[in-house]
Amino acid sequence: MANFTFIDEKLNGLTRIIPQYFEDARGCFIKDFHKDIFEQHNIPTNFCEETEIVSPRNVIRGIHFQETYPQGKLIRITQGEAYLAAVDLQPDSETFGKWKSVFLSAQNKNELWVPEGFGVGSMTLEEPTTIQIKYTYKYIEEYSAGIKWNDEALNIDWPNVSKYVISEKDDKLPAFREYFRK
After folding, report:
1. Is there a domain that residue 8 lies in?
2. Does residue 114 belong to any structural domain of this protein?
């Protein structure tokens, strides 16, 4: 059985993780988390909540974050495929306003560690897609924040689809420059 592989995405702690995976005639075994190994790679292991989101194809969520009580997020796709875009939202960071995208899928089994101080958005690419997220801090609705997924200043290279689904709340999020001018 192979060990975990940690890939530095060159954006202030953002890390893609290839978990331990083994397959034989009985099926497959995936170890997607190991406290000691994650800590050796400077990834927090103090997860306090876990959610699972199931969506049809072309659903866009985000870009979401909690500024007051930031959350680190360990994200994995257990069914389908999604495009994830993580944005460094820490004004004092060298990479503030920079983003990185990855394709995660049940097939490639990769995970994405999104550090505290980042916002993250997703677009589902298959139907259905199941996104599993472990959080380092609990969700507090009153501190929930976001910026427009298609903000011109960020210029994230989203997959080109003719029709997408987005919530009214996400569609009305402020632009990056508008949010950080406050």
Report:
1. no
2. yes
Alpha-carbon dihedral 73, 78, 84, 90, rounded to 10 degrees: 0
Q: CA quadruple 177, 179, 154, 68: dihedral positive or negative?
A: positive
55 has which bridge partners?
129
Q: Whole-model pTM?
A: 0.93
pLDDT in tens, 51-79: 999 999 999 998 999 989 999 999 999 99
Is 17 within the bounds of a domain?
Answer: no
HSE-up (13 A, CA, CB side) for residue 82: 31
- Determine the Cα–Cα distance for residues 66 and 75; give it in Å rounded to an integer: 16
Domain with residue 128: its CATH number is 2.60.120.10
Q: For residue range 69-114, what is the model confidence (pLDDT) as tens digits?
A: 999 999 999 999 999 999 999 999 999 999 999 999 999 999 999 9
Interatomic CA distance for residues 126 and 123, integer angstroms: 9
